[in-house]
Amino acid sequence: MGSPASTSDWSLIPAAADSDHNREPLTDCPTGGDQVLGYVLHHVGALDFSKELAAKSSAGFRSLGHAWGTAVTTSLRAHHTITRGDLPTAADLAEEALAQFRALDDLGGELLTIYPRAAFAEAIGDHDTAERLHRDGLRLAEELGMWAEAADRLSGLGKLAMLRGDHDTARRFYERARALAAEHSFKPAEVVAITGLGLTARRTGDLAEAEEHLREAEKWHRRAERAPGHPAVVVELGLLAQQGGDHAAAASQHSSGTRGEGT
Questions:
Q1: What is the pTM of this model?
Q2: How far apart are CA 246 and CA 263, in angstroms?
Q3: Longest dimension (CA), the chain
Q4: Is 63 exposed, middle or buried (0-12, 13-18, 19+ CB in 10 A)?
Q5: Per-residue pLDDT tens for 20-75?
Q6: Following DSSP, what letter does each residue of 144-165 receive, concatenated?
């Protein structure tokens, strides 16, 4: 998913797909490999290739009548749509996937639809709904042992607390998210949390701490070759430079962020 892009515990997808809810196991489905690879590529920033694979696997699953595969690719399309900034369409796709997963009684699948719906609620100012979704998602992720998704939901709660101006609560959520992601070796979720800590520090005037966190996040994004959250991190570094009085650096960062580049 989520923001910086959401991350999810996609390693559980093949196991879930072999459940009794499916018409054929994903491992035997000719488009199954494309679908799983599409998710992985999405969350490391290879968006164009991920979208290509998602379209291919979606068509394949629909032609085969594979209900679970269709639901998962619909969820993936929702996450792709967020990266285009089309949150209403992303939310619609997520609701479509949610209905499909509920028909299959697949709680893990339902969890994959949380982020697009929460992101849309946040964007329209419905923070109560966004918080409810993140909390429901956190509970479900913990129950299912989907720890990367749990870390993302904690970061979502941290962002909402930050937007409310409750910076202490935001830090606690982000620190929990970072520790959980690190414990389970899922770097994208860890970087989302680190970015959140940087944003919170900048808003409280702790510019040194903010730069430390944001530089760490930027370094990872550059290694990942422009993962989805990279432009947002670059823009935050520009705001940080501006807040510190370095207007030339701020202009350079903002220009880079607009072009989707790093420093």
A1: 0.77
A2: 15
A3: 61
A4: exposed
A5: 444 444 444 444 444 444 444 444 444 554 555 555 555 556 555 668 888 888 88
A6: HT-HHHHHHHHHHHHHHHHHHT
